[in-house]
Amino acid sequence: MRKIIFEDDEMRVISMFDTSNREAALTAVGAVIPLTREDTELSAVVVSTVEKLKQISDADFMKLDFEGYRLEGEEDKE
Predict the structure, then answer these.
(1) Cβ atoms within 10 Å of 1's Cβ, excluding its own
(2) Contact 33, 6 (CB under 8 A)
(3) Spatial separation of the C-alpha atoms in residues 3 and 68, rounded to whole Å
(4) Domains of the chain: which residue ranges?
(5) What is the average per-residue pLDDT within 12-25?
(6) What Pfam family does this protein match (any one) (predicted)?
């Protein structure tokens, strides 16, 4: 299986939501897909993020470090 690598924009998207586990992140990011339809660039990033989240394992998700991608004031989202 090939290694899934998240781009910086995808990491930023995930970090805006619950990163306590892969399923929570997948559900949260997937829920915003309809809200991004008008912005084709943002929509492409969100859709690619969801697809990558579907492909990685829970263990690999837990190894990801989202801290550097969180906006100020978002530290307590988990």
Answers:
(1) 7
(2) no
(3) 21
(4) 8-64
(5) 96
(6) TTRAP
Report d(CA 43, CA 34) in Å as an integer. Answer: 8
Residues 19-45 have pLDDT tens digits of: 999 999 999 999 999 999 999 999 999
Helix axis angle, 40-55 to 8-15, nearest 10°: 80
Q: Are 50 and 33 in contact (CB under 8 A)?
A: yes
Q: Does position 47 have pLDDT exceeding 80, yes or no? A: yes
Q: Residues 66-78: pLDDT tens digits?
A: 999 987 665 544 4
Residue 13 near residue 46 (C-beta atoms within 8 A): yes
Listed residue (34, 33, 16) closest to 25, CA to CA: 16
